Input
Amino acid sequence: MPFAEPMFCVTVSVPLFSLMSSSDAGAVGILDRDYPSTLESVDTVEADVLKAALDVGFGEDEQHGIGMAVRECMVNAVVHGNRYNKNKHVHVKVVNSAGNFEIRITDQGEGFEWQHVPDPLDEANVLRHSGRGLFLMGAFMDDVKVHKITPSGTEVTLTKKIEPA
Amino acid sequence: MSAKLNTREVGDVTVVDVSGRITLGEGSSAMRDTLRELVAGGKKKILLNLSEVTYIDSSGIGELVSGFTTVANAGGSLKLLGLTKRVKDLLQITKLYTVFDVHEEEAHAVRSFV
Output
């Protein structure tokens, strides 16, 4: 079955100003905007990113995987990060960078330690009601990175390689 | 399209036909509420027909798991019918495919309840 092996995440504390000036040299910006912390935003971002994925040339299966990863990430940002707070937004940036389709989703929450998220594949956790979001992001994308932002927030970068036609 | 549910009886088995997307929000909560009502109403043989489910996210999977345990804890059995390839793949990678009794054909699924 065409799923990537779930990738381990990396947590790095990065000042917000550093992220904003991080190296996107040569990258083609596709999407760069804020969304309110609502479930409707999850649907909107999924649709916006899928349109970008289609334009880049991803096939149907890859689009499905990207859509799933983005949904899981947005739900985490809206529900767990920003906790539906109308005064907080989720920033989404999509770039085509050196053959990689990168989606960066940033919330304004308190952050979390990904290493403490229980393994959903562990026998003790398989029947848990929740906790599969990060795992599914890793299953559908080629790389997932988690950055803790100071003073507060989390940025998750989802990467899918763009295969040449 | 958020998930739509329809319930019918086939003998002593309750078949819940689910269509659309089972995602966080209306879709997943509709399934949760339906299963809870069935259990509260004493239903112990429940077959979830997912053949028209086009999409499920981790919240939807969570409600499937919750439903499974809720029905089991009530002394009943919840089974799945008609998984699309994508839903089947999702259950397999989350190691849930072998947890559920999955069927492809309704009559066979109904007969499998003891």
In short: Chain A touches chain B through 22 residues (CB under 8 Å). Helices of chain A lie at 16-20, 39-56, 60-81, 133-140. The first strand of chain A starts at residue 11 and ends at 15.
